[in-house]
Every structure is written in C-alpha cells, then in structure tokens.
Amino acid sequence: MNSHHSEPLHIAYFSDVLCVWAYTAQIRLDELKRRFGSQIRISYHFIPIFGSTHQRIGGGWKEKGGFAAFGQHVAAVCAGFPHVEISPEIWTRNIPKSSASSHLYLKAVQLLEQQGEIGAEPVDEFSGRSRFEEAVWRLRLAFFRDLRDVSNARQQLELAEELELPVNSLMKLLHDGSAMAALCSDLGLRDEFHVEGSPTYIFNEGRQKLYGNVGYKILEANIRELLERPEGLASWC
Fold first, then answer.
1. What is the pTM of this model?
2. What is the chain's percent helix, strand, coil content, to nearest 5?
3. Which of 114, 195, 216, 221 has its CB surrounded by the most CB atoms within 10 Å?
4. pLDDT tens-place string over residues 119-150
C-alpha cells in the first residue's frame, strides 16, 4: 500500500487497567488493528495511576464523597459510551487495592507471548485480539462489568484459567522476578517518554504523543500521516 514503510509503524500504548478512559478506548484499538493490520505494531505498557486506590480515590476524592462519588463519576463516563458495560456498584464493593498487581500479572502473560508459550496471532473468537490482548480486556471486564477485585491474585489466577493459559509457566514468571522486571521496564519508558496519564499513545519513538480521551479519527489521521510521509521528512505544519 505504501512504499515508504517496510517496517510497521510502532505505537507504544500506555494505560492503567483500572482507568475508565482506557476501558472505553479499547474499541478504538481494536478498530486500528482491523484498519491497519500489519502496517502497525502496538506494544502494551502499564502505568500505576491507581497504584494505591486508597490514596488516589479515598484521599483524592475525599472532599467530593470518596469511593462512592468516584464510582458515580465512572458510571457517568461509561453512560456516554454505549459499547461498554459497567456495574452500578463500581468502586463501592470488591474495591481493588492497587492496579499494579494486575499489571504484574499481565506482564507475565505478555512474557508468555514473547517467549512463544502462547500464540501472538489474532484470534477470531477474541474479536481479532491476541491471547495476551484478550487477557488485558478480560481483566478490565472483570473489574468494570463483573465487579471482581482484580488486584487479588486468586482472581487473576481464575482469569488465567478461564483463558486456558499455562498457569505453571505464568507462576514461574511471577515468582522469579521476570514479570517485575518487565513492569519496571514500563515505568522506565513512562519516564523516558514523559507519559502523564492513561491512556497515552506514543508514535514515532516519542516524537508524537496523544493522551486521554482521543477520538478514533484523530488516531487514524496521525497514523496515516506517519505511514504516508517519506522517511526522514518532517511535516512542515
């Protein structure tokens, strides 16, 4: 389709699994993959916006009504996105203590993919997502829709079993420090690219950054411009 890029365009995607804006943005990622296929390569990175939910919501929203008020805010956000499902009791029951433990689990799943223990190809029954991408999506669903405490290791293990992941290999990566190293690597990239929040899309190895509730057309326009621009030629505008 274009002669300029033999290599796929790399998009580094940073998010927190407990972030409602990343939950609503999943449909855009799925659409980008459908639209651009092998022309783009998305790498997934996790940042602990909700590293301590007690501090961020219990403390940060104290004056506004704490967890209950934050839950109402999240439900109101989702009301504007008919494609996502949300529990009316979100953030009031089975509240996760930290997103970081979920991220650790997901980095272990990602390592299974990188090591070839699970396939990296899109799976039809997962709407074209890979097994790892489906693991991320199911963890978000488990929290936002099913009100499961996804910071709990037992819930993570149940999700792994539901996806038929190789649990022994997964546990090894969690126990030997590999998943933690991968998670710390994400934090290093966050600092390198000055990522401020979730979700953030980094294009062109850090030269372009889109952050927050970015519409699909804006994402697509940015990708098209980068794919169609001749190598090394900066846009004048």
1. 0.93
2. 55, 10, 35
3. 195
4. 999 999 998 899 999 999 999 999 999 999 99
